[in-house]
Amino acid sequence: MSTIILGYSGFIGKYIYKILKNKKEVTIGGNSKNCNLLKKKNIKHFFKKKDNFNLIICSSLVRSKVDTKKSQDNNILMISNLIEQIKKKKIKKIIFLSSIDVYSQNGKLIENRTKTNPKTKYGNYKLLAEKLLKINFPKKKLVILRLTGVYDHNINGKNMISYIRRGLKKNFLYIKSSGEELRDYIHAHDVSIVVHYFIKKKNFGVFNLASGVSKKVKYFVNKLNNVNLEKKKILYDNKVQLKDIIVDVKKLNKLLPISKFRKI
What we know:
Helix content: 25-40%
Distance between the termini: 36 Å
Shape: globular
Strand order of the largest sheet: 2-1-3-4-6-11
Largest sheet: 6 strands, parallel
Number of helices: 8
Order of helices and strands: EHEHEHEEHEEHEEEHEEHEEH
């Protein structure tokens, strides 16, 4: 049984590709060069003679880089083209990397209970993609992982953790909020562990994917700043009070130990 990773050369895809290779899984990587999801013929050629496989979908234009109507339309076109070309294939399991952006982004986020009410075009795309996959594939073949912010130890990322690291490296960090809001970030390696788990197990459904520990933004700043011998200048905007985001992961925790995930 082979596993195809679309977006295998991207930030999260690299970690998933690496762990599957290390586990001696038969792994095939697809990206914009060999499987451009904007082009139906390219997709058809890539999947020609491929059958009886697992599919991991990481491909998308991410919100942290661009959140325009054009990016939304392209993302929708990509998932629509993909589904059209593979829906008649023999697929054992599909794992789709979605986002907590599908929620209203306020308070505690719980699968199947918290209302899905995207505030971004990226969130709208992810929610639509989830619905299209549910319509076109049996539910027992589908795993949807709604990711919180993902980081690694590379400062070139596009989320808050990478923003903090870049600021500290430049000796000046400006946080555009009071820093009192709660957030949860998960390491990309832990995402790959969860994906591998679902590849091997028979579980299916929608799962939030986060570290399970929400901390104030100030905590992340102080934690990352403590690794520096020289303390940096840090400013907060106390006039901006953002709401907490707490990602409930009890559903996932029943399947594998979240407590072993990396903590910042």
